[in-house]
Design a protein that fits this description.
Blueprint (H helix, E strand, L loop, with lengths): L8 E5 L4 H13 L5 E5 L9 E5 L5 H12 L4 E6 L20 H22 L9 E6 L15 H24 L3 E7 L2 E2 L16 E2 L1 H14 L7 E4 L4 E2 L2
Helix pairs in contact: 1-5, 2-3, 3-4
């Protein structure tokens, strides 16, 4: 008789944001993973059994420390990177190439592309080599090169395209040591969070998800993925998005 495997934990990076918080709470309520770790740069209070810890995606030492904290509880079966930046002090989506600011562009890349890569670097070794495991990160449809028809948003588009390539490359590498692991990008749709607020023409319009609704869609997509889906990006409804 095969020995029963211990329940693996789930990790949500960016748990202080709307989608990240909703994902951590849904995972805790679902019971498929225990414990659930909610990692965030700023304060992110959660009720038990969620465990919290600080993480700064722009500081590799911080990422390594968070991984050590989560790894102390045993194997990590699910990692979701829900962090992302579109706008903020000194950062705004560019309407034209003349608006490019190298410092702002570097800041967007640091959070949206380099940060998830560092999470993969430190958390993949914590994932079980046998059995199903998932590493996912929130991407965006605007990161699709094939789907780019409107232009603009240079830094955000390029950072998400870079993220998609990082995930694809991670999928190739992970398959050698974790044959049942799934690596995926997730497009959550338009969600009522601070990230999308300045760009929602109608706050009550159709197609706008509450964070809890979005988290439910994303977790259903992840539950339905198979090893052969690894390396792809999927929308909230489960449809693949072209690279």
């Amino acid at each position: 008789m095969e020995e029963a495997r211990p329940m693996s934990s789930a990790v949500v990076v960016g748990a202080s944001g709307g989608i990240g918080r909703a994902l951590a709470e849904a995972l805790a309520a679902g019971g498929a993973h225990a414990p659930v770790f909610a990692l965030a740069r700023g304060p992110a209070p959660f009720a038990a059994p969620v465990r919290t810890h600080a993480i700064d995606l722009t500081d590799e030492a911080s990422v390594a420390a968070a991984a050590a904290f989560a790894g102390g509880a045993g194997p990590v079966g699910l990692v979701v990177v829900a962090s992302g930046i579109l706008h903020g002090p000194g950062i705004a989506p560019e309407k034209a190439v003349r608006s490019l600011d190298p410092a702002a562009m570097a800041a967007v890349y640091a959070v949206n592309a380099i940060g998830p890569a560092l999470v993969a670097k430190h958390f993949l070794p914590l994932m079980p080599r046998r059995g199903r495991s998932v590493f996912a990160a929130l991407s965006a449809r605007v990161g699709s090169i094939a789907d780019n028809r409107l232009g603009g948003w240079y830094a955000y588009r390029a950072s998400k395209a870079a993220l998609n390539q990082i995930l694809r490359t991670l999928a190739v590498e992970a398959a050698r040591t974790h044959p049942e692991a799934i690596v995926a990008g997730l497009h959550p749709g338009t969600v009522a969070t601070g990230l999308s607020r300045p760009f929602r023409p109608d706050p009550e319009g159709a197609g706008l998800f509450a964070p809890e609704e979005s988290a439910g869609h994303l977790l259903r997509v992840l539950d339905g993925l198979r090893p052969e889906d690894t390396g792809q990006v999927f929308a909230w409804d489960g449809r693949p998005i072209p690279a």
